[in-house]
Amino acid sequence: MPKRIAILGSTGSIGRQTLAVVEAFPGDIEVVGLACGHDGPALLAQAARYRPQVIALAQGRVDAGHLSPGPAVFSGPDALTRVAAWPGLDLVVVAVSGLAGLAPTLAALGRGIDVALANKETMVAAGDLVMAAAKGGGRILPVDSEHSALWQCLEGRRSEDVRVVILTASGGPFRTLPPADLEGVDARAACVNPNWSMGRKISVDSATLMNKGLEVIEARWLFGLDYDRLQVVVHPESVVHAMVGLCDGTFLACLSRPDMRLPIQYALFYPERKTGCLPVLDPGQMGRLSFEPPDLARFPCLELAWEAGRRGFTFPCVLNAANEVAVERFLAGELKFTDIPRLVSRVLAKHLPLKEPGLETVLTADRWARTLAGQLAGQMGRGA
Q1: What's the CATH class of domain 3-142?
Q2: Exposed e or buried b for every residue in 327-360, given b needs 16+ CB within 10 A?
Q3: pTM of the predicted model over 0.85
Q4: Tell me: the pLDDT tens digits for 338-356?
Q5: CATH number for the 312-384 domain, one of 1.10.1740.10, 1.25.40.10, 2.70.50.60, 1.10.357.10?
């Protein structure tokens, strides 16, 4: 029987690459549900091609009356969650951006459905809630390349044997740019990643290294590691995606081409490992592989994320929300590139952590941070 999946964020970069993997293995996967945020025309085109049982649009409405057989159609703020809880699913791919992935992830896990998670913000903002939901029987299968690599290196190993876990970062497009020139970079330059094909928001996060900071917090929850055993190194070639240092001094590393379809494929078919549908890495042609520590003066977002993760409670949630607002304003031309860490830092400095556990606490902290970040961004845009 084919594996029955739903893809949330199907019209985005990860969603489209997931569908490419599905097509590479005809008959092995049935696309039962498709959902996205606002791109109704693209969603309808996908529905016509893959004939899912259910589709959903979080913002706006779609008319699927011309499709035969017609899928069930949901719209509105709970639309993605309704798809994630659709009967008979084996796996939900959560590839929406931001906190929009939290409720669907909790809904799927709570019903014992596996989640292929490509939304790091969900784990950053509410890692404790997600890990608790996973105790109900649904598994969290990491899709981010670094976490997929760690997953493969750590599987079957005892926690006490792991000395250090290392996430690698390409360093983004400004790795060698003089720090004084960062203030003048624009959104177009920030969205050009040297190795990966990604959406605009995550490309900016890669350029600031906030992406890696969020991944550190996510790794803390996914693998139950304290922050003292987590490290980041800059690896411009993006061939080594993660390394694990064992207690005896041995290092394990996961290497592959920088192509998101590989970790997507691994999550879709886990625990089976399929013969790849992509060109295989040739070690003889790799050339030089280099590693260097991150420059925190150039990438202050990484240090902000580390600090928020260590402080815990709702600080990681606030970090994520403030960063989303900052990146959105930068992409809109309202803030400078160097304003992104400044804005996030100001919001974190004003936060009084909420210590009551629960979804409403997370959502309250998220709303507070977005409101304050919007206000401060307006002031910064006016030169205040």
Answers
A1: alpha beta
A2: bbbbbeeebbbbbbbbbbbbbbeebeebeeeeee
A3: yes
A4: 999 999 999 999 999 999 8
A5: 1.10.1740.10
